[in-house]
Amino acid sequence: MGGGVILPPMATLSSAPRFTTATLASATAGPFNIGFRVFATSTTTAKDALEVLVNGAVRTDFTVSGTFTSGYSDTATINFTAPLAIADVVDIYGNLEPERQEDLISTGLTRLLNLELPRLWTSVADMLIKAKSAVRLAGGVAAPPITYDDGKVLIMQDSMIKAGPSADEITNAQSFADAAAASAAAAAISAASAGTQDTTFLQRSGLRCTIGGTANAITLTTGGSVLSVVAGQQFRFRATSPNAGGVTTIAVDGVAAAEVATITGITGGSFPAGYIRTDVDTIVTWNGSRWVAEREIEQVNSATLAGRYIKHPDGRLEGIIFPATESLSISSSYLGGFKSANRSLTLDSVFPSGNELGSQITIETDKRPVVQAIPVEGTAFGVNINGVAFGTNVIEYFFTAFSSQTAADRKCAIKFDARWY
């Protein structure tokens, strides 16, 4: 055989994408398999032929290891100088710069290749420069051709570049965003104002508050930030226990505690027990110096007798009591007729100490309560009130008739209009 130059074997090239990605299951610096052929020459190192990203950021703090034969390796790996973290994503791209270092041995065909290959390599280099300045898809994704719509911008959607909104649509969207930002700023200012205190609203609404404190030292929390109150300002609450009588105060948010008065102005040590109820809401109004508590009309069944009372917010008390039936004779002379023995009725504790029947009662010009006894049909011709003892809860009454009556069951109902404070 004739002598000649023995050429190195021709390097094959896989059709697989020159791209590898890995998500770390543990912290490590490597090695990471590159996964595709890496070329190295006298002027291009293996590291120069790669582009490495970690979590999308370009990294150069790595080395390439591998056995290079005829200028390439199919089993090369990379190692970072410091361990990466768990869940870091490593992307490795081929980044070979086109170059041609030597001419082929000049024979007939190769002479033509020596002329043609520089043009091809130059063309590839030109395309590489343009590709590097173009929009790229991460992960070596092959994207379909894009249909360009006049006046629209490109967007990334479903891992593909697509035609997005038009310039006019973007301008309109920006206008809406600016308007929304202005509205949000205005809302923030309004919220700040509301958080400080909307006095007009609070006066108008009677804001319902959360109650705390004790029965006679009540604290109210509005959920806002009330720092002061003005005359006419109202708050509503539901007490968890009735006041015990005597001085009762209310403090709202950061406002100092002040005494509570009845609608008639009774306050201090005379403020009546049970004025603040647990079964209905209480509304208090600031009059400039104290809290005036409103009170709904209350119906109370007698605790010791058959009957009931109606307690009015202004202290007026209406009641009707049905004394127990008694066997009585009507035989004592009385104003041309006859009367029974005097009977007494002691009312129960709805009258606080110092506010019994006859004390602090203002009915027209008389301080004595108005008391009326009504006979029950068939028992007598009439029932008279003998008197109401001042300073007690005792009512005296007797039955009357035109003629003497032997002992028989006598019934009556006693109505009164007095005061409970």
Any overview of this molecule?
With 421 residues, the protein is an alpha+beta fold. The protein folds into 4 domains: 19-132, no CATH class; 150-196; 200-296, no CATH class; 299-419. It contains 3 helices and 31 strands.
State the strand order across the main sheet: 12-15-18-19-17-16-14-13
Say how many strands there are: 31
Poorly predicted segments: 353-370
Shape verdict: rod-shaped
Main pleated-sheet profile = 8 strands, mixed
Helix-and-strand structural type? alpha+beta
Helix content: 10-25%
Secondary structure tally, helices: 3
Mean pLDDT: 76
Beta-strand portion reads 25-35%
Distance from N terminus to C terminus (CA atoms, Å) equals 138 Å
What is the alpha-carbon Rg in Å?
A: 51 Å
Number of domains as seen in the coordinates: 4
Explain briefly what this protein structure is.
This protein is of the alpha+beta class and 421 residues long. The protein is 15% helix and 34% strand. The protein has an 8-stranded mixed sheet.
